[in-house]
Amino acid sequence: MSASVLFERRGNLALVTVNNPPVNALGQSVREGLLEAFRAAEADAQVEAVVLLCTGSTFMAGADIKEFGKPPQAPSLPEVVNAIEACAKPSVAVIHGSALGGGLEVALACHYRIARNDARVGLPEVKLGLLPGAGGTQRLPRLAGVAKALEMIVGGAPISATEAQRHGILDELFDGDLLAAGSAFAQRLLAEGRGVRRSGEQPVADAGEAAALLDAKRAEIHQRMPGLFSPLRCVAALEAAVQLPLAEGLERERELFRECLASPQRAALVHAFFAERQAGKVVGLAADTPTRAIASAAVIGGGTMGVGIALCFANAGIPVKLLEIDQTALERALQRARDTYAASVKRGSLSEADMARRLALLDGVTDYAALAEADVVVEAVFENLEVKRQVFERLDAVCKPGAILASNTSSLDLDAIAAFTARPQDVVGLHFFSPANVMRLLEVVRGAQTSDTVLATAMALGKRLKKVAVVVGVCDGFVGNRMVFQYGRESEFLLEEGATPEQVDGALRAFGMAMGPCAMRDLSGLDIGLAIRNRQRQSLPPQFPLPRVLDKLCEAGLLGQKSGAGFYRYPEGSRTPQPNPALAPLLEAASRERGIARRSLDDRYIVERCLFALVNEGAKILEEGIAQRASDIDLIYLNGYGFPAHRGGPMFHADQLGLDKVLARIREFHAEHGAWWQPAPLLERLAAEGRQFSDWEAGQ
Ligand code: COA
């Protein structure tokens, strides 16, 4: 029998134990082992019932994602699941941790299901561009109804054991030992004469309302997830559960599953899943690098950013001191924190009790001496090196030895900041994205002298704060902002060449970006970065011109949402962009000044100009070792810049298109638009060798 599945007969029970660390994924050996174990149980005359459970921290967390896209290996999961359901002896799945995807499908095929109180169950396949392909779309609606199945399968979020029991997915909850609970439940079944009970044989409870539910979900998908491949197929599979007998429904589910498996969106979403896990592995840092304990924190600066960061600590249960220069500024900052929580309570996403608990962890102070015992201090003051110097010199004077001194700078030289202290090894960048309490991305900036322990602690802290933490090196703008500068510049050039904001934003939204660059500019304020642009104009050589369109708008008082108009108009404080009739003459003036005859540009050209600017800069960032690997760059763009997950990130997207094709376009743009488009040497090298960004890791 397979080493990943243990079979043991104890009295009248067969105990089937899956043991495939770390998450008991249903790889080939587990599938084979399950099939053999259930056959053995069936064949053993002394076995009256089967108890299925898992070792380690979780029940089966799904199919083995690493097998997707590779040649299938028998037995298939549907075959295993169908055999489990067909077994002539009653079976009980004993769930702890997470029963996800294929794991839940196996449990649904068992005749009874019990779970530890703290377990979760779900069908998250849609998040990987798939649908449950081993009966989940057919069995779940039979147990829980179409409405709940639609919510779980199209939404993909796991639910608690309590909720699952309420919806008929679980029979009982328990606390304590898995084997004891499973055996007791099985003996009770036998004593009460309750035998085999197949969920696949039950009718769909709310079949009468199904048509309306399915239609409503389709409409919602068209509205909220346009362009996504798998959600509509999830609905189609559920429709089959309502309309067809089980065997035919399973066939239809398999067909739809195969379509999803072959889709490029599935490949992109699986890439994003592994990118997130890979980012935690830091090149040159041993997995067992010791970390420092973080039991308390402090944040300097109570602006939007500082308060957002302080909330992140409070949300994670870490006591945090928020320092402002005087009582008035401090009161304003604390009020902002209270308002943010109050808004969450009003929306229903936070309870009053949790708000009170979190606010109690937040302590406003005005004296640096109060930071003496903090384990980590994050500076979020004005972006000016002289101001940072004052802050870090004081921190160096008051903080205890071993405290981590972090800067939230988004553009200044972290090594220069570290040099303001006598302990540069304890200085690290923690670049949060605004609003810091909402955005998942955290760039962890590794300075030239940042110690391994400090870096490892910063990464572990990121995880505790529920952030996607990505290590980056020191350079202007780090990874995210350095690349987005190129993207923004191209979008502005396009406006000067003939496109309208509606066209630029529309083309990029159709590609999948959460927001177009012009609407994004309006949101952040067109005057942001004006001073930087002016400085750059002085310092950049003449072959690197900058667009003028933003300056033109600012001169005309169009600053974006905050002034009621920018690229778009926002009547009476509305946040919905409307066309701005004042814009056309300004765009024409900007074109004239640069000596450009406006022309019509198509959507594909717009998307290529903006995205390939990202890719070319990303290649330079990789070669310089500022990012460790291409998937880290993708992760930054997916979590900080609204890049569509189903495209996998800019570098993955370029790999999919083929680097030779991307390079050919970049060469054309270089010929057409000059020095900004000088192809990155790494891109040229990889394209010539027929390789991909994903083949490349720092140091190769
Ligand atoms: N197949 C293969 N590997 C998997 C996996 C799966 N279904 N689920 C997790 N892993 C791997 C991860 O890649 C990681 O490997 P690494 O240590 O080599 O990087 C390891 O298991 C631990 O996963 P991680 O996510 O870091 O652990 P966690 O404790 O934070 O979360 C889960 C555990 C199960 C909640 C989470 O891994 C998860 O959601 N997995 C995917 C579930 C899913 O989508 N199933 C449906 C598949 S169709």
TrEMBL record:
**Domain 3-hydroxyacyl-CoA dehydrogenase NAD binding, chain residue ranges per copy:** 297-473
Coarse class of the primary localization is: other
Please list the residue ranges annotated as the 3-hydroxyacyl-CoA dehydrogenase C-terminal domain: 477-570, 605-691
> Is Isomerase included in the keywords of this UniProt record?
yes
Which terms does the record give in the GO molecular function aspect? (3S)-3-hydroxyacyl-CoA dehydrogenase (NAD+) activity; enoyl-CoA hydratase activity; isomerase activity; NAD+ binding
Per the record, the GO terms for biological process are: fatty acid beta-oxidation
> What UniProt keywords apply to this chain's record, in alphabetical order?
Fatty acid metabolism, Isomerase, Lipid degradation, Lipid metabolism, Lyase, Multifunctional enzyme, NAD, Oxidoreductase, Peroxisome
Catalyzed reactions: a (3S)-3-hydroxyacyl-CoA + NAD(+) = a 3-oxoacyl-CoA + NADH + H(+)
In which pathway is this protein known to take part?
Lipid metabolism; fatty acid beta-oxidation
The family database entries (Gene3D superfamilies) matched by this protein are listed as: 1.10.1040.50, 2-enoyl-CoA Hydratase, Chain A, domain 1, NAD(P)-binding Rossmann-like Domain
The subcellular location is: Peroxisome
The record's InterPro entries line, in alphabetical order, gives: 3-OHacyl-CoA_DH_NAD-bd, 3HC_DH_C, 6-PGluconate_DH-like_C_sf, ClpP/crotonase-like_dom_sf, Enoyl-CoA_hyd/isom_CS, Enoyl-CoA_hydra/iso, NAD(P)-bd_dom_sf
Entry keyword annotation includes Aminoacyl-tRNA synthetase = no
Q: Which PANTHER family match?
A: 3-HYDROXYACYL-COA DEHYDROGENASE-RELATED, 3-HYDROXYACYL-COA DEHYROGENASE
Family (UniProt): In the N-terminal section; belongs to the enoyl-CoA hydratase/isomerase family. Belongs to the enoyl-CoA hydratase/isomerase family.
- Please report the name of this protein according to its UniProt entry: Fatty acid oxidation complex subunit alpha
